[in-house]
Amino acid sequence: MADQTAATHDLLAYVREVSLRDDDLLRELRETTAGLPGGSALQVMAEEGQLLALLVGLTGARTVLEIGTYTGYSTLCMARALPADGLLVSCDIDDRWPAIGADFWKRDGVDARIDLRIGDAAATLEALLAERGPESVDLVFIDADKANYLRYYEASLALLRAGGLIVVDNTLFFGRVADPAAVDPETAGVRALNQVLHEDPRVELSLLVMADGITLVRKR
């Protein structure tokens, strides 16, 4: 049986060379984010942004929910992939970092598709369920505080239509999920979600060994 290919520096460079389709605006937003405190560790890598856009198109999504905006790189990638009348609701606890992305959204002409909600994400998800009703979202991207991942997952599943997709970021969490000595709330939150997903009969899943771990979850 074939084993996992070792991801050497040269091989990753080759993958980027033959698969990444980039542009000046995306590069500028990544560079701006990298200059922020912790920006390089927190931002979505370019290949992941491209994957998110592909998944929006593959699922035919018209309504996307994003939990965790940061500087809005993933927001921009997914909004671009939506139809002109599509909607992306993005949630963040503070407007400081999303304000950076908002300028790029406007420059790209996709700002009208983006509904930024500032506040506690769990409360925002409850409000969305009341506003839009269950099974009203086509795709969800979860990339927020890891300690609450299980809570976000359950709320997202209620909002997601049958056949819809949840994409969960950081499900390997810098490798700490496999370290028994790592018991901090963030690692424990990711580890708990991974276990729940593995046993959840309501969904199909695949954990991709890409970036910091990306889990695809399809609602049955």
TrEMBL record:
Entry superkingdom: Bacteria
CDD domains with a match to the protein in the record: AdoMet_MTases
Keywords for the protein's UniProt record, in alphabetical order: Methyltransferase, S-adenosyl-L-methionine, Transferase
PANTHER family in the record: CAFFEOYL-COA O-METHYLTRANSFERASE 3-RELATED (PTHR10509:SF14), O-METHYLTRANSFERASE-RELATED (PTHR10509)
GO biological process: methylation
Family matches, as Pfam families: Methyltransf_3
Gene Ontology molecular functions: methyltransferase activity
Name of the protein: SAM-dependent methyltransferase
